């Protein structure tokens, strides 16, 4: 489940990256460039990104956008020595269904220097490996092995703050801050090989987690949000440094 949360953010940042790269000089025919002076720029960006969903599924090499099916997260240290001394790691994490996202709300302010997104992920599936040791919901958790999960109706709320800088006489955008908040939906997960393969005990723990799904995920949300902010801020900065402000958002 913790992994599905990752996805929601991973997905959002791809969308955020899309909004900063869709105005590059050479664009595929299926991308509609949005002028920064368009009074309906929010609607324009939203429609453009939605129209690109079939292409995002397999990735867009010319825009450095990776494939979203599956969306590969890889390895991530989710928690290290949390309030209960718990350690949680995700390994080889893949998420399916991320390309079916929908932008519910999009708002820009501060003369295009701030963007706020609300994105819905109606249905996700996750698979990978986990390593967990500690205590959540007063439950002792110990084990490592494969995990699977099915999740519905997750939301990602992302705020991106931009500024401009001069480089060799050209104006470039820079990201000053990126914040992510996650609202979990419903879901079920299965952690295999808990307690060295003790099926009876593992079944009890899995059932308890799923019966308290929201509480369980809320234990992990904060550290996941912070880790993803750091990871995707670095990615986004690397992308936008290749384009001038005017290339990204033409007048």
Task: Using brief descriptors, characterize the structure shown.
single chain, 39% strand, 7-stranded antiparallel beta sheet, 251 residues, alpha+beta, 6 helices
Q: What's the number of extended β-strand segments?
A: 7
Roughly what percent helix?
Answer: 25-40%
Number of helices: 6
User: Can you tell me the residue ranges where pLDDT is under 50 for at least 5 consecutive residues?
Assistant: 1-10, 19-25
Order of helices and strands: HHHEEEEEEEHHH
Strand proportion: 35-45%
Describe the structure.
Helices cover 33% and strands 39% of the residues. It is of the alpha+beta class. Strands 1, 2, 3, 4, 5, 6 and 7 form a 7-stranded antiparallel β-sheet that branches. The N and C termini lie far apart (43 Å). Residues 1-10 and 19-25 have low confidence and may be disordered.
Layout: helices, strands, pairs:
Layout: H1 2-21, H2 41-51, H3 53-58, E1 71-79, E2 87-96, E3 102-109, E4 114-136, E5 139-167, E6 170-183, E7 186-191, H4 199-211, H5 213-240, H6 245-248
Helix pairs in contact: 1-5
Summarize the structure.
The chain is an alpha+beta fold and 251 residues long.
